[in-house]
Design brief:
The protein is mainly α. About 75% of the residues lie in helices and about 5% in strands. The chain has helices spanning about 1-20, 30-45, 60-95, 115-130, 130-145, 160-195, 200-245, and strands at about 100-105, 110-115. A two-stranded antiparallel sheet has the order 1-2.
Amino acid sequence: MIGSFWWPFCRLMGAFIVMPLLGNAFVPVTVRILLAFSLAALLGPMLPPVPQVDAVSAGALLLAIEQLLIGFMLGLFLSILLHVMSMLGTIMSMQMGLAMAIMNDPANGNSNPILSQWFLMFGTLIFLALDGHLVAIGILVDSFRLWPIGTGIFDLPLMGLIHRVGWLFAASLMLAIPAVLAMLMVNITFGVLSRAAPSLNIFSLGFPMTMLMGLLCVLLSFSGIPSRYSDVCLDALTAMYQFIGGSA
């Protein structure tokens, strides 16, 4: 009976370590533990029979680590999903010349351009508005049926998870292409202008215009990104579901 609560708790806790919002350093560890324990207590009576393993044996330790890793990989899908918006902000900041405007992020232990933090917050709100967090928890619950405890970890499609890293760059570039092309046209225009009028101080004129054009692209992006980002969220959640053997 203890195992029916402990193994689900390990898998849920592994997912909550890296999941957006819950995996943030500002969320106390106690909150994550209590949430994982509450869900495990609710799921315990409904799960298939768990393996009978001695609680103080090496097999129990390996099984706990296995469940932590499965939950970690499931939560990693959502972490990659939200980093699409962070990468989008980085690409647009570099095109605008705002890459030097860096803000330290103590929650994640890194430094990102301010625009990346802005887009990351926007993407998180879109994800919550689409009830993506409820769908993700539902997939975690279904994982105990689709990939029962004790099935193993090496039979999972691990290459599919690795390919999501490439998908991260592709999705962020897809969202940033309109702004990148607009900024490229601005740079080409000022390049032609500098050749036509060499005496013109292109730096004093080009940087403010590039900045204004970049801010206009950001304004237009905030109105067009939600519909595209919803498709990205659906793709990430579908990949998360298929990773544990579900069918789309």
